[in-house]
Specification:
Blueprint lengths: L1 E6 L2 H8 L2 H8 L4 E6 L12 E2 L9 E2 L1 H9 L6 E12 L2 H7 L5 E6 L4 E2 L1 H7 L2 E4 L9 H12 L32 E2 L2 E2 L9 H19 L1 H4 L6 H15 L6
Helix pairs in contact: 1-6, 3-5, 7-9
Bound molecules: adenine.
The site of adenine has 12 residues, from β5.
Length: 249
């Protein structure tokens, strides 16, 4: 899978490409990443990329022309263009898994300044995404987030041991609490059932813990899922316990 990232601040993204799994994946050609400097496509002697806004906005706006030329410089077909902006659709695991990880070539336009010219978005952008309800200085960190979250689904990126199967959201719930050695830490013990060797019981326990956490923190996720009979029973029990003030938040 190839990622092309159009940015004014490639130096913010470069270190992520030189570290840990992303670096290994690039070295092994599991993913390819190219950073495209928007300044190279600026207009006039000063390679200008931004201009004053029409309307009431106070900030500067990235111009459509340099962005269009930057996109045109990418010669591959089958490009899927993603623009990172706080006004985009909220990014979630479903978009990453079902849409983005199935693309061959993702072009990420990392915005800067107040915004970018809407006409560029209308003509060239396939998906406008936000990484959360807060405003960053630019789209470079969102671009890294996209790079990392999508790459995890490219075959060969993760080793077996970190398989994406048990991640939070992989079954629609938050992942349950996890433990490692030692068995006792600061007088706190690992839940006994995890040492029982009874695989079925352990799976049931983990599913229940997963549901509890999702019920406490992200009840909105539960509405989107097709729950099994057992899962519905657990949720029903949690609802009753909550009424009795037994669920700690
Ligand atoms: N650029 C600035 N803020 C952003 C956000 N919340 N999500 C995506 N891109 C952004």
């Amino acid at each position: 899978m190839r990622f092309s990232i159009i940015t004014l601040f490639g130096e913010l993204i470069q270190p992520f490409c030189e570290t840990a799994l992303i670096r290994r994946a690039i070295e092994r050609k599991i993913i390819e990443v190219d950073l495209i400097n928007l300044r190279d496509f600026g207009v006039g002697k000063h390679r200008r990329v931004d201009d004053y806004p029409y309307g009431t906005s106070k900030g500067m706006i990235l111009m459509a022309e340099p962005l269009k030329n930057a996109i045109k410089s990418i010669k591959h077909r089958n490009k899927y263009v993603v623009y990172t902006s706080p006004a985009g659709v909220p990014l979630n695991q479903r978009i990453i898994e079902d849409n983005l990880s199935r693309q061959k070539h993702i072009v990420i336009v990392a915005g800067r300044y107040k915004s970018i010219d809407q006409r560029f978005i209308d003509k060239h952008v396939d998906l406008e995404v936000s990484i959360g309800d807060y405003v960053l200085q630019g789209g470079e960190i969102p671009a890294v987030i996209l790079l990392e979250s999508v790459s995890r689904f490219v075959s060969g990126f993760l080793g077996d041991i970190d398989s994406a199967e048990s991640d939070s959201f992989s079954k629609g719930f938050l992942d349950c609490p996890r433990y490692t050695r030692p068995y006792e830490f600061d007088k706190m013990k690992v839940p006994k059932i995890l040492l029982s060797g009874n695989h079925k019981k352990i799976e049931e326990f983990e599913e229940e813990e997963s549901l509890k956490l999702t019920f406490k923190r992200r009840r909105d996720l539960l509405d989107t899922l097709d729950l099994t009979k057992r899962q519905k029973e657990i949720i029903y029990r949690l609802t009753l316990e909550e009424k009795d003030g037994k669920v700690k938040h």
